[in-house]
């Protein structure tokens, strides 16, 4: 009887703790991949991408599907020379919506770099969606959507 | 023995059928909401949005969180007068990744309208992510991300 009561009292806080734990874990995975990206190393993301990965970003004509497409897409970016130094980022207001084997991480990202003689400047402001799912017990990204905050309608588009 | 064999033979095709069924169901929900949107009726989407909804689009400064924020955001769009007639859309290459209680719908969307004296024109080209989840047995959207295909870096941003 007392044991049941203790179990009941423990259950709710433990569930909340488990959710927080998933959120912290997902955010840490994303930050580690971003840190490597800023060092011109896309392998951090490639290691996180699930085989059935789908992907959008503002420079593409259409969705990319599958890890092989991502490997080809990122290949030229390894060791890329940036026109700035000291890249850093702010991850603003990260949110993790965890439902079963899926966790949806969303955040705004601000990229900064230092330009010679000009000091630090904002390079890009992003809306970021990273949908993680459990693949054999490991959180991997199965969908990624990157877009510019307040982006303009591309030239030539009416309205 | 024979019954077990029949069950085993049935299991794989039934699982595949169930996945197809979810994909068809999700795409039908999205199309119904898009059809209403094109008639200046955002209620189709609002009815699909889960309470814990998160949302990005290119005209926002940051993520919107929660159904109430979405209701306020869409309120001015009810009955909006478009500068064109005969709105229609193409949903290109829809994909549904279904994992447990979550289904990730991604597609490219082309919006068309007819302008007086100019005929039909493309109004916008979108990258679209709609993450659905089961809420008490009903598929609802818990995250939405809309961005322009090949959007430009917003003016004033370096690089």
Tell me about this structure.
Two copies of one chain form a homodimer. Chain A is an alpha+beta fold. Helices cover 32% and strands 42% of the residues of chain A. A six-stranded mixed β-sheet of chain A has the order 2-1-6-5-4-3. Chain A is globular, with a radius of gyration of 19 Å. The mean pLDDT of chain A is 90. Chains A and B meet through strand 1, strand 3, strand 4, strand 5 and strand 6 of A and strand 1, strand 3, strand 4, strand 5 and strand 6 of B.
Characteristic terms for this protein:
6-stranded mixed sheet, alpha+beta, 3 helices, 42% strand, homodimer, 159 residues, 6 strands
Gist of the model:
Two copies of one chain form a homodimer. By secondary structure, chain A is of the alpha+beta class. Chain A is 32% helix and 42% strand.
């Amino acid at each position: 009887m007392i044991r049941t009561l203790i179990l009941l009292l423990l259950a709710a806080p433990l569930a909340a703790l488990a959710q927080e734990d998933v959120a912290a874990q997902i955010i840490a995975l994303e930050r580690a991949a971003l840190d490597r990206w800023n060092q011109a190393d896309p392998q951090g993301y490639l290691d996180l991408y699930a085989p059935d990965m789908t992907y959008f970003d503002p420079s593409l004509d259409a969705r990319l599907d599958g890890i092989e497409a991502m490997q080809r897409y990122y290949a030229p970016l390894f060791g890329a020379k940036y026109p700035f130094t000291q890249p850093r980022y702010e991850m603003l207001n990260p949110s993790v919506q965890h439902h079963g084997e899926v966790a949806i991480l969303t955040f705004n990202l601000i990229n900064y770099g230092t330009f010679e003689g000009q000091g630090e400047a904002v390079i890009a402001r992003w809306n970021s969606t990273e949908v993680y799912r459990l693949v054999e017990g490991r959180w991997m990204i199965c969908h990624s959507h990157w877009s510019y905050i307040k982006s303009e309608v591309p030239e030539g588009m009416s309205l």
